[in-house]
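ugh ok so i messed up the first submission bc i forgot one of the chains. this is the corrected input, ALL of the components this time, i swear. 215 residues overall. if the numbers dont match what u have on ur side tell me asap before i send this to the collaborators (the ones from the other lab, u know who)
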Amino acid sequence: MAKIMFLNRKAPHGSIYAWEGLEVVLIFGAFDNELAAVYMDDAVFSLKKGQDTSELGIKGFIQTLPVLEDYGCETILVEKESLDARGMTADDIAIPVQIVDAEAIANLMAEQDVILPF
Amino acid sequence: MLHIVSRSPFSDDSLKSCVRIAKKDDPILLTEDAVTGVMPGSAVASLLQDAMKSHAVYALSADLKARGVDRMLDGIKVVDYAGFVELVEQHKPMTWL
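and heres the new structure output, hopefully the right one now
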């Protein structure tokens, strides 16, 4: 069983990264691995409450986020400094997450077998 | 862990975020457009100087040469492709996309 981290750093909707970063978690959920997702920098907007992409004519993924845990991704970390820098707080986040500092992310990163950046 | 940064630090936060997250003594390798950050007097000079207090910072020679980057902050170490491979052999690599 490998430890795999998905490191998300891009804002949603403006590029495909955030969407792909979520899809790949769901794919890896089919295998027996220990999964962790990290959201930092603009990726904190991927977890923002109240996203509605209907006027963009694209599929949003805010509805998909709550299933991450069911797919075996039980560790979801959000970097506090990234939230602070964007005027966001824990109340803005749509799903249960752990809000942590850079050091906690670094420690978890050091334990991983594979880190996939998105 | 070897942190590999390839995006220009003037248009992307990856170097800044890498420096924030990297553990003390983890080496940082600048490749592709990220090597543009090593010129003295730039807007990211102080970020790199601070980074060099706790990390070895390398820049890939082929990318420096390709971009005509002919002067560097003191302390930046230049590596060629063989040096890149050695770094990857010694440290688990992590790419900052």
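quick check: The CA atoms of residues 17 and 96 of chain B lie 9 Å apart. that seems consistent at least. Chain B has one domain: 2-96.
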